[in-house]
Amino acid sequence: MEKQFRSVAQLSDLPPGTCLSIELPEAGIALFNVKGEVFALDNTCPHAGGPLGEGCLTGDLVACPWHGWKFNVRTGACLKNPSPSWQVTRYETRVVNGEVQVLLPISQSSSTTKSLGNEGVGAAHETA
């Protein structure tokens, strides 16, 4: 399957130590800024479907806001159950001209370029 980088947020909307939920037609994405490095995971916790982008980010670990399950934002690994079946999908990211871009499969809905705006962008959640 072909993939392409897609702009999903402005870096200024994701300060260090915060996370952000992004809902796209083809996927929900959770963005994390760990000391200036941006990471992206699938936004859905495999335990009960909680939005990881609304969780609590501590270092490179995010705790799901629903039940506290922790995931490494660099790898997607679940700390509570390290089985691959509980791992969250990780996406490659890059920052270009202040825009956070995520490598996503090309779909019909994403093949036409749209302005970034605020469509599908949630609020950044600052954590300790």
Give the topology:
Elements: E1 3-10, E2 18-23, E3 28-34, E4 37-42, E5 56-58, E6 61-63, E7 70-72, E8 90-91, E9 93-96, E10 99-105, E11 125-126
Antiparallel strand pairs: 1-10, 2-3, 2-11, 3-4, 4-8, 5-6, 6-7, 9-10
Could you name the CATH topology of the domain at 15-93? Rieske Iron-sulfur Protein
Overall structural class, as computed from helix and strand content, comes to mainly beta
Q: Could you estimate the helical fraction of the residues in percent?
A: under 10%
Shape: globular
CATH superfamily assignment of the domain at 15-93? Rieske [2Fe-2S] iron-sulphur domain
Structural features:
disordered C terminus; 3-stranded antiparallel β-sheet; mainly beta; globular; 128 residues; Rieske Iron-sulfur Protein
Give a structural overview:
- The protein has no helices and 11 strands.
- The chain is mainly beta and 128 residues long.
- It has a domain at 15-93: Rieske Iron-sulfur Protein, CATH 2.102.10.10.
- The N and C termini lie far apart (38 Å).
- 29% of the residues are buried.
